[in-house]
Amino acid sequence: MTDPAASIDTTRFIGLNGGAYPVRIEYQWLNAEQADAPIALFLHEGLGSIALWKDWPQMLCDRLNCRGLVYSRPGYGRSTPRRPGEQWPVEFLHRQAHDVLPALLDALGIGAEERSRMWLIGHSDGGTIALLYASAFPEALAGLAIMAPHVFVEPMTVEGIEKARITYETTSFKDKLRAYHDDVDSAFYGWNDAWLNPAFLHWDITEEITSIRQPLLVIQGYDDEYASMLQLDKIKSAVDHAQLVKLTQCRHSPHRDATNEVNDAIAAFVRTHQS
């Protein structure tokens, strides 16, 4: 994969004013010239951004013959960082799915017909946001393919996030993340503080996602350091038509650890369900 700094910067910015305070969102269109193609919308992980995806969204869009829409959520990348002292609430993922994402689609002029043909591609927190969006707006997408999502909190998840905090504060990890975020503390502590909030231990969206009707593909590695296969099993119990892909020798980032297998699985899934 190419280094993000070596790529031509096609990032744009758009303001959203519908929330508690206005924010500026960085976004990119991929294959924008394919005006009639369906949209694949990418939702990044808890420490992610446009830059941290690197060239995988472009690779997948080329494979799917889709346009791609990639953006950095507020607090991440080159989007507006968290305000000083702001702590994200337990429902922070719900707010991204129910408020920020629809507001972004509205601001970009993506109407109902385009949304009905849209595929959500999410990783980790982004996968969870995709599930929450699909449960709230079941007609506003064609389907979703997600990797390593969370639908409840496991002890190993908390342990992994606690270890990430120690690593961030005692190693060069913070310096490495600076390449992907204008305000690296905004990105890290927004995510880390939210997940380590004691109230978050009781967070569980299993019942909420039972309303999902659109095609759903869920991918996870057996060596995921943040969650067990119980996540996929609970998703399957809530959404019976979900297709599961469980990968060996794969950790928390299947699109990096098992790129070919993930691309093959998503391409076959979309091809099967595309009208």
Automatic annotation (TrEMBL):
Q: Which Pfam families match?
A: Abhydrolase_6 (PF12697)
UniProt name for this protein = Lactonase
Can you tell me which residues the record assigns to a coiled coil? none
Q: Which PANTHER family match?
A: HYDROLASE, PUTATIVE (AFU_ORTHOLOGUE AFUA_2G14860)-RELATED, MONOACYLGLYCEROL LIPASE
Q: Which GO terms describe its cellular component?
A: membrane
**Lineage, broadest ranks:** Bacteria, Pseudomonadati, Pseudomonadota, Betaproteobacteria, Burkholderiales
Residues forming the AB hydrolase-1 domain are: 41-265
